[in-house]
Structures are given as structure tokens and as C-alpha cells.
Amino acid sequence: MRTFTDNNGRIWTVVVNVAAIKRVRAICGIDINSIVEIGEDGKPNTDLLQRLEGDPVLLVDTLYAVCKPECDTKNVTDEDFGAAMAGDAIASATDALLEEIIDFFPEAKRLALRRILNATRRFAEMAAKRLKETMDSEDFEIRLASELARLTGLSGNAQESAESSPTHSPSES
């Protein structure tokens, strides 16, 4: 059993068992039991995992379904639960949910899922590192200003153009 804290400081316990899987099916229309499936070609199909990681609304709805008994005890509605979920709370809740889903399975499948999740996390870390390096590069600001100028039709330094005519907005052109 894992926990996470929402943005209102409430601590939630994530427990994935058959009852939780049934609630998620009923409330969200997805089967977290098939978070990763092995296709006929022997390759893992991670569509549901990618949907959960890429769609914060689906993820929070899934978390709400998993935590629903606790939500009912705390008199927290679906709307209240979702309103307290953003930023780092979503990240820690995602980790708690994925770890619990993996722990639900017997050892052989659990080991395979853990390897897939670890590979996914390594890939995400590499992508984040590359994005940071790109944003920290010296020519990023120059390329960004150039692209903004191209898109808006402004010429020259975008910052200087904005500062030189504070009463003129692009919509007035």
C-alpha cells in the first residue's frame, strides 16, 4: 500500500486489489489489470500506461476510483478530489498508483512490469534532461525569439519591439 498527498495536504492511501480494479472499470471504463499487455508478437503493449501518464484527467479519475472508499469516508467528492490534484501531487500519485498496480500481480508478471516501468522512467528522465539542456543552451532564446517573430510577423528583437511600443498590441495591427 502506497500513499500520496494532494495539494490540500490530505494523505491518500492507494490500494490496488480486485475491488479497486472493479471500481476503476465501472467508473472510468478502463481495465488497469491490463496496464501492460504482451501482444501476439511478444512485444509489450503500453497503450494504457501511456494514456494514464499522458492524460491527467483520466489518471485522476482512476485514482479517485481506487481511493473512493477513503473519499467516501472523508466526504470528498470527485470534484473536490480533482481540484486538489495538480503538479507534484499528480506526479507522486502516479508513482503510487503504478507501484500498486505492479504489486497487484503475481511475481512473474510483476517482475516484467517492473522492468517495463523502470525503462519508461529512464526514458522520461533522459527526455527531461535533453529538454533542460536544450532550454539552457545559449542559442535557445535566440531561436525562440526568431520563431516568435516569424509567427507574429514582428521583426527584430521581440523583447525590444514589445518594450518600444507598450501601448501597441499585435491585435491592433
Summarize the structure in words.
It contains eight helices and four strands. It is mainly alpha-helical. The protein has a two-stranded antiparallel sheet with strand order 1-2. Helix 1 packs across helix 3 (56-73), helix 3 (56-73) packs across helix 5 and helix 5 (88-104) packs antiparallel against helix 6 (107-136). It starts with a strand and ends in a 9-residue tail after the last helix. Mean pLDDT is 85; it is low at 161-169.
Radius of gyration: 22 Å
Output the number of helix runs.
Answer: 8
**Mean pLDDT, rounded to whole units?**
85
Largest sheet at a glance? 2 strands, antiparallel
Helix residue percentage: 55-70%
Number of strands: 4
| Strand ordering within the main sheet | 1-2
Describe the structure concisely for a colleague:
The chain has 173 residues and is mostly helical. The chain is built from eight helices and four strands.
Secondary-structure topology with pairs:
Layout: E1 2-5, E2 11-14, H1 18-28, E3 37-38, E4 44-45, H2 47-54, H3 56-73, H4 78-83, H5 88-104, H6 107-136, H7 140-152, H8 158-164
Antiparallel strand pairs: 1-2, 3-4
Helix pairs in contact: 1-3, 2-3, 3-5, 5-6
